[in-house]
Design brief:
Chain A is mainly β. In chain A, 9% of the residues lie in helices and 34% in strands. Chain A is globular, with a radius of gyration of 20 Å. In chain B, strands 3, 4, 5, 8, 10, 13, 14, 15, 16, 17, 18 and 19 form a twelve-stranded antiparallel beta sheet that branches. By secondary structure, chain B is mainly beta. The chains are: A mainly beta, B mainly beta.
Chain lengths: 218, 359
């Protein structure tokens, strides 16, 4: 990894692990249809509304920062997406999953029903388009599915299988169901497997990541 | 909403032609030519010499090209079997290139319409020339040196013990392109980049033996017309004493035709040519309108309850773009582009970012 040359504005595009997997499949799933923008690496506490030189330089400390090159791990990048909200918004949507961390024994299940706070004038609401949940390492789960959203896109995504390698998987739903793996060989000499679950509100763009731990039972 | 769909005109596939020097390390002119005694002493040494840009035992040494000699009648090589005359590594090489280029076992090579029974073939390593050689960039100096030579050079005032030639391909002056079984074919002529030497022939050929060889850019091969190289310096040759009868060694008991061929480059010390490669790229145009992407889910932008950290941002929100994610319909992140510095976005700005994705 290295710093990018910031003397000129350039873009450095690479395929992610997931992108390479889908490209290798050759089934048409590698088709770029939409984009998102993110501000990973930005620390807004550096934004200084008290700057003695005025508003033009409030973001001085941010605008000149060097940026790191892109990571190929799709779960470690695009963490903080930019969102489109009405001007004048004072409180931004945040997610409440009901869990700050998930720990499951082998073969155990859990259902997560996310809620969005501070969205569309409501203190707490369920987003109409549901939530996208991403498990960083799909191998640790026996089943990973979303229910409650019946669009063609959601149904197709929820029925997608991966190649059984260490890649992420996305599902869509208002409730996300997880069942941990029963396969002992994944553990090796370890007693626990760890990964992360990231949930994103499909309407609000709010995002939350929590750790997931699977404990070996036999 | 944090995702925005592309319009059909936002995703463009483009093919660009990239040309670079052929040699390792992007050296413009190869001036050091080294062989490997291990390769020469092995079975393949009867057929060709591999040429490196540095000591082949070094970690950075790479094969740049191989030089080989082809003779229709098997001359200059030891026959495979004494009771089967004319079948030797040199006849095998001749047949190999005849099959590759002419595609007809009954046709012989001719250079500038003058037949020749033998040639030197330079096969450039595939990793060097990538997709094809770029016609018009070849500039090769070959030199034969022998103390017994006594060549009069007009205007130079002294006789010399060497003869040299500077060769280019005729792609810049030829009015038509010839196509063979090996793709495009150009003649090698005397001259330097941009100009043809017409001292021996108006088209840059030798006086009596046709062109100096052929360039096949699509297979990375150069043939040198050995008949033209054998000719006297006054006829445009370098007096190369190629052995055409049976047997490997010349009368000095040391030299071989392959060694002679290698020496042409080693003493000439100048071999320049470029590769050409077509790179297909996806260009994706990311357009963010003035009222889009002005807020962020970045936790440092808000307090624990979700309120904006800075009150000035309530009516004048600002965000900083550092990353562009490209997704499919399933919201799978397929590719990621990073900006080299944060790009300010607010309600008074629109952004257009061009993302290039090579395969």
């Amino acid at each position: 990894m290295g710093y990018l040359d910031n003397s000129i504005v350039t873009v450095d595009a690479i395929l992610t692990k997931k992108g390479r997997e889908l490209l290798a499949r050759g089934d048409g799933s590698f088709k770029i249809t939409q984009f998102a923008l993110a501000d990973d690496e930005i620390d807004y506490t550096l934004y200084n509304p008290l700057h003695p030189s005025g508003s033009a330089l409030y973001g001085e400390a941010i605008e000149n920062m060097p940026l790191l090159e892109a990571f190929p791990d799709e779960t470690q990048i695009m963490k903080y997406k930019l969102v489109t909200l009405p001007r004048g918004t004072s409180k931004l949507p945040i997610l409440d999953l009901g869990f700050s961390a998930i720990t499951l024994k082998q073969g155990a299940s859990v259902a997560i029903t996310p809620q969005t706070l501070n969205f569309q004038g409501a203190t707490s609401t369920f987003e109409a388009s549901g939530y996208t949940a991403t498990i960083a390492d799909v191998r640790v789960l026996n089943t990973f599915s979303g229910v409650g959203i019946n669009t063609e896109e959601a149904e197709q995504l929820n029925s997608t299988t991966t190649l059984g390698t260490n890649v992420s998987k996305n599902v869509i739903g208002t409730t996300i169901n997880l069942t941990s793996t029963t396969i002992n060989t994944l553990f090796g000499s370890r007693t626990r497997l760890q990964t992360t679950l990231t949930v994103i509100g499909r309407d609000s763009g709010a995002r939350l990541t929590i750790p997931v731990t699977i404990t070996k039972t036999n | 909403m944090s995702f925005k769909r592309f319009d059909p005109q936002d995703v463009v596939i483009s093919a660009e032609s990239i040309s670079t020097p052929v040699w390792s390390g992007n050296i413009t002119t190869l001036d050091t030519f080294v062989t490997s005694s291990t390769q020469i002493g092995g079975p393949s040494g009867e057929y060709y010499f591999n040429v490196y840009q540095s000591d082949p035992t070094g970690s950075s040494a790479r094969v740049q090209f191989s030089v080989t000699y082809g003779n229709k009648d098997g001359g200059g090589s030891l026959v495979y079997n004494p009771i089967v005359p004319g079948k030797s590594p040199s006849s095998t090489i001749y047949g190999q290139y005849r099959s590759l280029v002419l595609g007809d076992e009954d046709t012989d090579f001719s250079f500038g319409n003058i037949p020749s029974d033998h040639f030197y073939a330079i096969s450039i390593d595939r990793a060097r020339y990538k997709e094809k050689l770029l016609p018009g960039t070849l500039d090769l100096v070959i030199k034969y040196q022998d103390d017994s030579l006594n060549i009069y050079v007009p205007g130079d005032g002294a006789n010399k013990n060497f003869a040299e030639l500077r060769l280019i391909d005729n792609s810049q002056v030829a009015s038509t392109v010839t196509f063979t079984d090996a793709g495009r074919e150009y003649e090698l002529i005397s001259g330097s980049l941009g100009s043809v030497y017409t001292g021996k022939n108006s088209n840059g050929y030798s006086a009596n033996n046709g062109s100096y060889g052929k360039l096949y850019p699509d297979i990375g091969v150069i043939l040198l017309n050995a008949s033209a190289l054998e000719a006297e310096a006054s006829d445009g040759g370098v007096v190369l004493p190629v052995k055409k009868d049976a047997g490997v060694l010349h009368s000095d008991g040391i030299t071989t035709n392959l060694q002679l061929g290698y020496d042409l480059f080693a003493k000439g010390q100048s071999f320049r040519v470029q590769s050409e490669e077509t790179v297909s790229s996806n260009f994706v145009f990311v357009r963010a309108r003035n009222n889009e992407f002005n807020y962020s889910s970045n936790p440092s932008l808000i307090t624990g309850s979700g309120e904006l950290r800075h009150n000035v941002m309530i009516n004048s929100p600002q965000s900083y773009v550092t990353s562009v994610g490209l997704y499919n319909d399933n919201n799978d992140l397929l590719a990621i582009a990073k900006l080299s510095r944060p790009l300010l976005k607010d309600f008074t700005k629109e952004s257009l970012i061009r993302v290039k994705l090579d395969y």
